[in-house]
Write a structure and sequence with these properties.
The chain is an alpha/beta fold. The chain is built from 14 helices and twelve strands. It has a six-stranded parallel beta sheet with strand order 2-1-3-4-5-11, sandwiched between helices.
Amino acid sequence: MTPHTHGRRPTLEDVARRSGVSRSTVSRVINDEPRVSAEVVEQVRRVIAELGYVPNQAARQLVTRRTGAVAVVASQPQNRLFLDPFFDCLLRGVRRELAGHGAQAVLLFLDDPDDHTRVADYLGGGHVDGAVLFSLRPGDRLHEMADRLDIPVVFGGRPLPRDGDTVRPHAYVDGDNRGGARQAVQHLVSLGRTRIATVTGPYDQEDSAAERLAGYRDVLPDAPTELTERADYTEQGGAEAMAALLDRSPGLDAVFVASDLMAAGALRTLRECGRRVPEDVAIVGFDDLTEISEATDPQLTTVHQDVERMGRLMARLLFDRPAPPPSVVVPTRLVVRASA
């Protein structure tokens, strides 16, 4: 221990004082947040090493910390969840952020209605210090349960209560679904495509699918309903939706697909039907999961959102809890590859 701390454990304030920066700047450096110059990052990290400072995350942030465990609740069947690279990337971000705070993730699944009572009892039973809830359906009972919990809760995506319900605001993290969809469809329009279809997600289940459909309609408000087909965010669902669109509208020349996994299925159907991509039909996906978008043939033009960062932000908000609870919307951007 250095003389600076006089034999006691160094604090965040000690690091800030010796570094000549604010306490919040030190916190941002520790949490690898943006908006800190490389010079300041280097200086703060040098002081941390000199003082032997170890972040006391439990005392500093998660004041209700008792168990060192955080629940991650997914309203998806287990077998489907682990086949979806989006959720794998999201969970990776959550786990990495929790590890930095010395916490473990406990995965809970809502496969059937009986699971709701079990999970609600578990969350309220003192087994975990916080919860990340994602892919929840509108009107899911966990929304009202979240209002009664005495642990911090963060939603992945905007919470969707039942129609007419009033719920307490909770922190959430989401991507700019509507803006990203607009970029995708505007790109297809800029290519001269005139018969642009869309494959949507299950928009009675989550807000992101409804927002991506709204972004499509922002650009093409007069698009006929026959150019919209609903699917379930799976590759097979995307393949079947693409087949239905081609049956109804064989003259379509472009399609915006609301996830990369569904876009991979749509590409398979187009190939089987003898349609060249992008010559006959241009296609744009959403998510930019590189294990999909860079592996398809042709490589997929898609809307990028930083899914792992979204997971990290969800977990981080359990520890840094400003009032009122924040809504964090992560920007999206179009990544142009060969499919459009």
